[in-house]
Design goal:
Length: 362
């Protein structure tokens, strides 16, 4: 990542990076979101494939865009010297001596950029060898060195509040409406997680990351990366959340209508059964039990006459109830799946936070 500018944290960054973040926001809202909506349009792909294609598209696009921004910024001081953030002053000094001999203008008279390369290495060495400057650089980047910035808790939380309130308002406006309820939940969960991580990183004493995690990157750059990826995350939540949206009120109405139709079928069939029983009683009431017992037996020979007997009507009632129950069970199953998905998101957030705390505290 870069040592030149960047909106790495709420407490640092320049106006140029604010414009860059704003342009990235509009890029995702007005270009990426419609493209993702096209992929997720119902009927274009299978449901699972649509979600996989949309996630893959967003991930690749965010990775390419972020990679281009990182490449444009150039290497930071640690990468420039070929050391990591846990390197001792002695290691940094040895590395600098080796590079200074290789990049000295006298050694490279045919390279017009040799003086600039040598100056960048010398500047990186001067910053990393001074422990106070090194701490400022890790927290606030090169802009912090230029402005002689120091960590002030009050100023930090004011700038943090302005940043997250602004993004919170934009996220809320973009996720208005009943259809965006799931997207709003995911977006604000991500915003809260990012806020907790930024406070943990910026207020920690020393290096908060394990030595294996991005060994050449600073706390400032880690926060810059979160801020850069958040617009992609938010618009991904909007697209996929809207695609997975289930209208619970519509499902409830569908369930009630199915129950109402089922009740009508039951009443109609019961009325037919009642009429059939009355007809049998009227026919067999004059005497002769054989006439009563033989009537149902003669019915099947009349080509479908069994459907007008009480037994046939009861069988028809069973078939209608089975058909109606399948519709009701489908609606109830969708309601249950929606509830389980909501609970899964909540528990996943808790498990993610516990896992992060364990990894970075070990």
């Amino acid at each position: 990542m870069s040592d030149e500018g960047g909106n790495g944290g709420a407490g640092g960054g320049g106006g140029g990076d604010d414009l860059s973040g704003l342009s990235g926001f509009f890029f995702y809202v007005f270009i990426v979101h419609p493209a993702t909506a096209w992929i997720l349009r119902p009927g274009r792909f299978e449901r699972k494939k649509s979600i996989m294609y949309a996630i893959g598209f967003l991930a690749v696009l965010a990775a390419v865009k972020t990679g281009m921004e990182m490449q444009a910024k150039g290497p930071n001081h640690y990468a420039l010297l070929g050391v990591n953030r846990n390197s001792s002053p002695l290691d940094i000094k040895r590395r600098y001596k080796k590079l200074s001999l290789q990049l000295h203008p006298d050694k490279n008279p045919n390279d017009p950029e040799a003086p600039a390369k040598f100056d960048r290495v010398k500047k990186a060495y001067d910053v990393l060898m001074d422990m106070e400057f090194r701490e400022v650089y890790n927290k606030f980047g090169a802009e912090g060195i230029k402005s002689n910035k120091r960590f002030d808790e009050t100023q930090f939380f004011i700038e943090l509040g302005v940043f997250y309130v602004t993004w919170g308002i934009m996220a809320y406006v973009l996720t208005l409406g009943k259809r965006s309820g799931l997207a709003r939940q995911w977006t604000f969960t991500g915003l809260i997680v990012m806020l907790v991580l930024e406070i943990s990183v910026m207020t920690s004493q020393g290096n908060p990351f394990p030595s294996w995690f991005l060994p050449q990157n600073t706390e400032y750059e880690a926060v810059w990366l979160m801020h850069t990826l958040f617009p992609a995350f938010m618009n991904g939540c909007r697209s996929i959340g809207g695609y997975l949206y289930v209208d619970l009120e519509a499902q409830t109405r569908q369930l009630l209508l199915a129950l109402q139709e089922q009740n009508k079928d039951i009443l109609l069939v019961l009325r037919d059964v009642q009429i059939g029983v009355q007809n049998i009683q009227a026919t067999g009431g004059g005497g002769g039990g054989n006439r009563v017992t033989n009537a149902p037996a003669a019915a099947p020979t009349l080509g479908g006459a069994s459907r007008v007997t009480p037994t046939g009507k009861i069988r028809e009632l069973q078939e209608r109830l089975q058909a109606s129950n399948s519709t009701v069970q489908q609606a109830v199953g969708q309601l249950k799946s929606e509830k389980s998905n909501s609970n899964f998101g909540f528990y996943a957030m808790i498990l993610g936070y516990v896992a992060f705390s364990y990894v970075f505290s070990s």
